[in-house]
């Protein structure tokens, strides 16, 4: 007697693949993560990964982008800087993914960084205390560059995360307010 085929739950499978991909990309970066590794961690055949995402680049983009953009929509604009700094310095949910994007190399990672940069720059520009869009864009770009630099050198700063966050908040607000 043959058993009935197991019912398929496409949403659950897709979700398991995304969770596994986020974990592995955060641990190993883009280059260190394999399609087979993601499928194995999700407990599915790797053919399903290709069915749902097409390729590793598309999986990376979806897995990373959603989580990395979350701080932009998880609260009011006036607390955006606090949310971003919490992601960067307080090991908040999403921080591992944030750093995975920065660490990863290649076209997929560059495309995601470009998309995220555009979104964050627009959010920062909206916070700038100027009606001049060129000046707002400049302030937003400077803030984004500063935060990216801080994220890559945070271990070398030699101060508590709370002290760094307090100083960065003051500096960021001064830059945006002009």
From TrEMBL:
Residues 34-53 bind DNA. It holds the Pfam family TetR_C_16. Coiled coil: none annotated. Residues 11-71 form the HTH tetR-type domain. It comes from the Bacteria. The keyword S-adenosyl-L-methionine does not apply. Keywords: DNA-binding, Transcription, Transcription regulation. One of its GO terms (molecular function) is transcription cis-regulatory region binding. This is TetR family transcriptional regulator. It comes from Pseudonocardia hydrocarbonoxydans.
